[in-house]
Amino acid sequence: MTLSKKERKDKIRIIAKNSGIRQEYLDLKLTDDEILEVYENLRPLQIVKPANTYNRYMLSQNTGKANKKAKAAETKANAEKERADRAESQLQQFLNPENSELLQIGRWLKNALSQVGKERAELLKEKDLVHKTDYEHHVEDIKDAMEEHQQITEEVVLESHQLKKEVNTKLDVLRHQQNMTKKYIIKHYGIDVWQKIEYYFDKKVV
Description:
Blueprint: H1 5-19, H2 23-29, H3 32-39, H4 42-95, H5 101-113, H6 117-126, H7 132-189, H8 191-205
Helix pairs in contact: 1-3, 7-8
């Protein structure tokens, strides 16, 4: 049986109301005969409508959860990709010879060693380094200074011994002269005169 456009629309509206199925889906999938058959048996649709409504609700909930999980998984995947990209970039920078600290130090050292004299010493000093030649020169200078100091010390000691010897000799001469003078005065002027002389000089010394 063929339904008019209005009849088909009215019956589809009633079926949709009793079944919970959208009108456009019914219009798209059902023929006129099927619409009439369903329309004449609405009771089963009315019975299953609550279950159908709940089913659609659960589907929407599950779809929402699935979408959230998919979004979270996508976000996590993007974050992992960004970390992987950063790690790859850092690895490439590390492997790049131009970024090698060892290579930079090698270039600096090569440049420093290509210099000579004071310029080389100043460059190496920046890194607390000393060239072998400069080190040997410093050691030689220190050795010369120590030898010179030793020589001066020996000369001073020798002069000190000589001076001490001369002083002792002079003292011996003075003591001898004093003794001869004492004997002469005692012999010709008496012991009392000598004692007075000793007393006079002792008092002057004090």
